[in-house]
Amino acid sequence: DTGVSQDPRHKITKRGQNVTFRCDPISEHNRLYWYRQTLGQGPEFLTYFQNEAQLEKSRLLSDRFSAERPKGSFSTLEIQRTEQGDSAMYLCASSWDSRRDEQYFGPGTRLTVT
Amino acid sequence: QQPVQSPQAVILREGEDAVINCSSSKALYSVHWYRQKHGEAPVFLMILLKGGEQKGHDKISASFNEKKQQSSLYLTASQLSYSGTYFCGTESPSAGKSTFGDGTTLTVKP
After folding, report:
1. Over the stretch B43-96, which tens digit does the pLDDT of each residue have?
2. For residue B53, which residues of chain A lie inside 8 Å, CB to CB?
3. Do residues A113 and A86 make contact, with C-beta atoms less than 8 angstroms apart?
4. Does residue B78 contact residue B12 with C-beta atoms inside 8 Å?
5. 3-state secondary structure B30-88
6. Which of A99, A101, A105 should one mutate to test binding to chain B, selecting the residue with the greatest count of B CBs within 10 A?
7. What is the pLDDT of residues A40-50, one digit of tens each?
8. Region class of A11: left (phi > 0), else alpha (psi between -120 and 50), else beta
């Protein structure tokens, strides 16, 4: 197990299209986080899961964003009707079992909406 | 609310020391520190928990003042590999999410 993986690494889409990203966490990790990062900013929290349960979702996240983690393993983040403002790096991170544990980040998916 | 980091940027020569600060307006449960190099994912450095527990990097130290809601990251005898952007992430006692600052860019020159 080499760490958190994300797919795809890059995605270019036209405004209005739907996109889906996948994150595979480190296998023993129960927590999984999604963040969005734009140039010059820190990661911005989107949502997190404890196993398959989605425990918190940012109020900044519009109804166009949805995330799932079926069976508590990999997770998907879907953005519907993409807008140019959605262009960003989408980072996934995982950690063991509690908020006392450090997060391991994946390489990210860079989304460009044209 | 987002923690505030200072300074925004710092340039050092190899072997010099640096301090990066992170300040929150809310009570904190924990502070996390990460380093991100250009085009790469953030990498964990330190986590400091309310009550004094901490874990992380052997060569990097940090402090957490719970009353002042502040944390500082100390980089001593800096190496070229320390260059990157340092982020602090804070968690409040009631929430399980991390809120990150906008980062401090550290450049170490030979």
Report:
1. 999 999 888 877 777 678 999 999 999 999 999 999 999 999 999 999 888 777
2. 100
3. yes
4. yes
5. EEEEEEECCCCCCEEEEEEECCCCEEECCCCEEEEECCCCEEEEEECCCCHHHCEEEEE
6. A99
7. 899 999 999 99
8. beta
